[in-house]
Design a protein that fits this description.
about 675 residues; alpha/beta; 17 helices; Rossmann fold; seven-stranded mixed beta sheet; TIM Barrel
């Protein structure tokens, strides 16, 4: 077991613990298959280089077929078989989906949606995070598994539940209402303080007793916005509390086994504040699936980068991604040749020391039978399995990278779950605002400039970064405003955007003009927002076009200048992008959505102000996604061709690492990856 500086632990390898390695495997569901297939599985796992699997994720009904009947024989045999073939097990607590006998006997564990409809069994995750009945049964199962398998030699880690909150993050039941009141009582102390925070003088909402407070269920009009924001906070906390409850039992009974659960840092999955959850696990794990669209690869890189920050720069575990097509998008495209390796290695580039898939063998039945797997329906004689085996050999060759950490970048994008939640509430100036998309657009602009940028949480240490971009930083408590002011005063360069600095932690507007808490720092004042209708655009004098939003900006500080001016629209002639210089740093404001291409045109000027430069030769900037891991002596440069054309890397020096999935030549075709070992400059 590897101990990190803060005491966090990595996988407990059941054999050869001293040997560094990258983990490689999948979710394994032997209960879906006849016993004779299991022997085929372990033989093929060895051939593919698989060294770990996640087991028993959706096995509650098989492990406990009735309330007082337990069946561990099949799981005993699976654990023993995997261990005999050198495959470690990341064992799930199996609590993700309750069995039919439990929901039949206790229908009160089923979630209720905002309209008051019961969410019935038949799919998965049909349970209330705040149900005391569900909690009791889930913890009983967790305890039974810990007692039986805590000393099993195959056990490398515990996997709590699965994708907590994927389908049940928001429950509006009576259990949730009671738990919400207790959460609010802990947060506010008195009903009077809650009334102040929720601004309940508006629309005659003043409460006289805790019992009067409900979740934001279906209402005649817009529910109270602070109630909505608090319910999002509460819902994330309720799931975190369940994670903690299962973890407490595992730590009590198996103190030597590390614990994780799989986050879902990807796309628009936003209900769980993973920055707040990360401290609950021994190592961070994530599930990520490639999304369709022109920024698909940038989004993968962005999510892997953010996951690396959640892990504190330490190695993390890619619990799930796909070998090829998924089954849940409107149109599910197979990956092109090389896509399996490219996607996997992008996660490794940003700190993953484990690369795993859903799932090992593609299901013959069930809702995910058309989701790809390591062994597809076509079997081992397939391009997918050959690609899997090639990746396994590559990861084995990359063993020297295991345990290395991310080298910090000079720039960072600040990501804030609460601004994501609050910024997209109803009854706002525009319902078209998309927080994560704006952050992703900035990330694409950094990639286009060839500049590495970390994606960090708003509570992370901001010092040490020369440039911070905080897009749509909508929620700015007084303490955060002070931290940003200190950052700029200490020589940092801050960039923020439209709809930033607007509200405090209670979703109350900072008065005196926008952007509220950041107004003086930016040296600007805005009296009224100027959101744009669908299809409307505004031109800037630097040759870029804005959409979605504009602001009527007044410069209020002699040190503030306009970097760009509106040429068209209601604010023609007024500043569109501003910069306020301070004795040591600067603060800039971008008042419209420019998209990735527009931001790519604007970012170089902001980089020049901050002094941040690309580490790449000019001829390859924008062509590759660069990520850097380090062992403290050598750096490992991961260079991925992110474009549609070949990229010549002959100007980038370093010793190439071997591996059948890696480019060994200096010309990268689209999607190819090259890893160079380099000694850091200086």
């Amino acid at each position: 077991m590897v101990e990190a500086e803060n005491g966090r632990r990595w996988l407990r390898w059941p054999s050869e613990p001293e040997r560094a390695r990258l983990a490689f495997g999948a979710d394994y569901n032997p209960e879906q298959w006849p016993r004779e297939v299991w022997d085929e599985d372990v033989r093929a796992m060895r051939a593919a280089g698989v060294n770990i699997v996640a087991l028993a994720i959706f096995s509650w009904a098989r492990i406990q077929p009735r309330e007082d009947v337990w069946d561990f024989d099949w799981l005993d045999e699976a654990m023993d078989l995997l261990h005999a073939h050198g495959v470690a097990v990341n064992l799930a607590t199996a609590t993700a989906s309750p069995p039919p006998w439990l929901t039949t006997k206790h229908p009160e564990i089923l979630p209720v949606d905002a309209d008051g409809h019961t969410v019935w069994p038949g799919a998965r995750q049909h349970w209330r995070p705040t149900s005391p009945v569900f909690r009791a049964h889930a913890l009983r199962l967790t305890r039974a598994l810990a007692e039986r398998y805590g000393s099993h030699p195959a056990l490398a880690a515990w996997h709590v539940s699965n994708e907590l909150g994927c389908h049940n993050v928001y429950d509006y039941s009576d259990d949730a209402a009671a738990a919400f009141r207790e959460w609010l009582r802990s947060r506010y102390g008195t009903v009077a303080e809650l009334n102040r925070a929720w601004a309940t003088t508006f629309w005659s909402q003043r409460y006289g007793d805790w019992a009067q407070i409900l979740p934001p269920r279906l209402a005649a009009s817009y529910p109270n916005p602070t109630q909505q924001l608090d319910f999002k906070r509460f819902s994330s906390d309720a799931l975190k509390d369940h994670l903690r409850a299962e973890s407490d039992i595992l730590r009590e009974l198996t103190p030597g086994i590390p614990i994780t659960t799989n986050f879902m840092v990807m796309g628009e999955t936003k209900g769980m504040n993973y920055a707040d959850w990360a401290g609950e696990v021994d190592f961070v794990s994530n599930d990520h699936y490639l999304l369709t669209g022109p920024q698909a690869q940038d989004e993968l890189s962005f999510s892997a980068n953010l996951t690396g920050s959640l892990a504190g720069g330490r190695p993390w575990y890619l619990m799930e991604h796909s070998t090829s097509a998924v089954n849940w998008q409107p149109v599910n495209l197979a990956k092109k040749p090389g896509g399996l390796a490219r996607d996997s290695l992008t996660h490794v580039a940003y700190g993953a020391d484990a690369v795993c898939f859903f799932q090992w063998r593609q299901s013959a039945g069930g809702a995910e039978k058309y989701h790809s797997a390591m062994v597809p329906h076509a079997g081992e004689d397939s391009d997918v399995f050959r690609s899997v085996t090639e990746l396994g050999a590559t990861l084995a060759a990359l063993a020297p990278i295991a345990g290395t950490v991310r080298r910090r970048a000079a720039a960072a994008i600040v990501f804030d779950w609460e601004s994501w939640w609050a910024g997209e509430l109803d009854s706002h100036p525009s319902s078209r605002l998309r927080y994560r998309q704006e952050a992703l657009d900035w990330y694409s602009a950094f990639l286009a400039a060839g500049v590495r940028a970390d994606v960090i949480g708003v509570a992370d240490d901001l010092t040490g970064y020369d440039l911070l971009v905080a897009p749509i930083l909508h929620v700015v408590p007084g303490e955060l405003a002070r931290r940003l002011e200190e950052y700029v005063a200490s020589g940092g360069h801050l960039v923020t955007t439209y709809f930033s600095g607007i509200v405090d932690e209670n979703d109350h507007v900072w008065l005196g003009g926008y952007p509220g808490a950041l107004r003086d720092l930016l040296g600007i004042r805005i009296e009224e927002f100027g959101p744009l209708l669908d299809g409307d655009t505004v031109d800037l004098d630097i040759g870029v076009t804005g959409t979605l939003w504009t602001d009527r900006i007044d410069l209020t500080d002699p040190a503030t200048e306009a970097l760009a001016v509106y040429k068209t629209g209601d604010h023609a002639g007024r500043p569109a992008i501003t910069l306020r210089r301070t004795p040591a740093g600067s603060a800039s404001y971008v008042s419209t959505r420019l998209g990735p291409d527009g931001l790519a045109a604007v970012l170089p000027d902001l980089l020049n102000v901050s002094g941040v430069a690309s580490e790449l030769p000019a001829e390859v900037r924008g062509l590759v996604d660069l990520a850097v891991r380090t062992d403290g002596t050598d750096d490992y440069w991961f260079l991925t061709n992110r474009g549609d054309h070949d990229a010549d890397l002959s100007a980038v020096s370093g010793d190439p690492l071997p591996g059948p999935s890696l480019a060994q030549h200096t010309t990268l075709t689209p999607g190819q990856v090259r890893i160079l070992r380099r000694r850091p400059a200086g």
